[in-house]
Amino acid sequence: MLRKFFTAALIAVLTMVFTACGNSSAGEDKSTINSKAAEGKISVVVSFNPLREFAEAVGGDKVDVRVIVPEGMEPHDFEPKPRDMENIMKAKVFVYNGLGMEGWTEKTLSAIENKNLQVVDASKGAELIKTSHQDEEESKEDSHEHGDFDPHIWLSLKEAKNEAKNIKEALIKADLENKDYYEKNYEAFASKLDALYNEYKTKFEGLSNKNFVTGHAAFAYLCRDFGLKQSSVESVFAEGEPTPQKLKELIDFGKANNIKVIFMEELASPEVSKTIANEVGAKVEKIYTIESREDNKDYVQSMRDNLEKIYSSLK
Length: 315
Description:
With about 325 residues, this protein is of the alpha/beta class.
């Protein structure tokens, strides 16, 4: 959770950082954008991995993309460091997912003075799914902390197209000269997403079983794409251990619906998933939330892997 004095402190730190940068280049942080190394390219900073994937797919060799949130860290829990702020300050395009996924963006952007920065809320134009909560108190707390909508839009092939489109439009504004290039790359990427969607839409339509169990309720948009239903150990924002009642419900659900696989994500608690799997007589398999790049797979490869594993578990 951001501290109340975050913005003031951050501005003070930034002042010291930029003053130091102006006085000396000997100790320059290599993680900051190097204008000479990226000469001729559009500097793009994104909040976390899936947006990097989309920016690189659309921007190709015309962009230099930097990621703010480190691999293996939840974007919800992240707080930017001075070097992250410097990267955003020097960028031409900054992309974030929105919908409460990155609670730090509003205060971060308010501390940055770059009138030419193209700021992209990649969720713009998305068809959103409202979050559900177990009780009124949890609903109030989550709405204040994260927002009222499920932020995991990139796990929908349809919504991923929308996010890529938003990035494409920002790149064109920043670099109008290469408009045709960005349009062509976007169309090629969108075609890949459409082909994968159509392939698995047909596959899932042929199944009577539509239920699967995950460790983290991140797949509502994927479920909407294909008419599936997820039951999950952890909430949309992967916070808190499940109650004994919730565990019993998941175990009963697994037995009643002949669940063969409990899917587990890298950043969700594995032990509870394993416990449920043992009780149900199911196996545990890895599924990608793509918040970090895992197993050296790109976005399309990761989504294909997810869809194939879910499809195979439902047959």
